[in-house]
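Can anyone check this?
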Amino acid sequence: MPQNTDTPIAVPIRFLGSGSSGNSIAIDAPDGVILVDAGFSAKETLRRLGELDIEPSRVQAIVVTHEHGDHVRGVRVLAKRLSVPVYSSSGTRRAAALDRECANSHVLIPAEATSIAGADVIAFRTSHDTVDPIGVRVEMPWGVITVVTDTGEITDEAREAMRDSSVLAVECNHDIEMLNNGPYPWFLKQRILSSRGHLSNVDAASAIAEACHDSLTAIYALHLSEANNVPRHVRASVDLALERIEHPCRVRVVGPSGCKD
C-alpha cells in the first residue's frame, strides 16, 4: 500500500552495510523502498533487510551506482527474486551486463528526474575508476536524500546535488596520513588518492560543510577503509568542519554491518 506521506518517516534511510565487503542502502520513498546498490549476495541482502524490519515486498527498485562487485554482487538474483526493475547509468548497464542479466533494466540519464516508488530519482556523475559511475539524489515531498559514494573528488554535479539535501550520505574512505603510512603498495595508494579513486575524510568534510543549511538533519559517512580509516578520524574531520560553521549536525558512521552509532 503506497504511503504517500508529506512528512518523513522516523528513519528515511537505512544501511544494510557499507565497505569493501559490500554496500547497500534502503531509502523509504512514498510508495516503497528503493535500494541503492546490492553489493551483498541476494540471500545476505534479504537477511539484512529482515534485520532492519524491511519486508522484501516493499522493495520497488534497485539503483546501481557502478559496476564494482561490492555494489552489484547480488543485483541479478535479487532483482529476479523480487521482480523489481534495476536502474543505472548507460555505461554501468553495459559494464555490469545488466541489460542481459536483468529482465527489467533501465537507464538513468544524469540531471533528469525518473519517477521511482513515488520519488524523483536524479543521477549525477561522480569520479571513480569505472565506466560511468553515478551518485543518487532522491527527492520526496518532505525533503531530499543524496548519496555520494566511491568518488575520488566531489564533481560539480555532486556538489550541486548535495545542496538543499535533508540527508547526506557521503563517502569518507580514508585518512590521508593513515593511507600514506599504511601497508598498501605504492600503486594502490596512488589509485586511492587519485581523482578517480576514493574520497578522503578531509575532502568529504569540506564538501559536507559547503552543502550545509538549516534543513540538513542527518549526515552519514560511507565506505570507510578497514586499513586506512577509523571512525574517530572521520568524526574529527567532519564534526570539526561542522563546528566551524556552527551547524548542529554531527556525522554518523556506517560500517560493514550498517549504522550502529
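Reply from J.R.: I decoded it. Confidence is low (pLDDT under 50) at residues 1-5.
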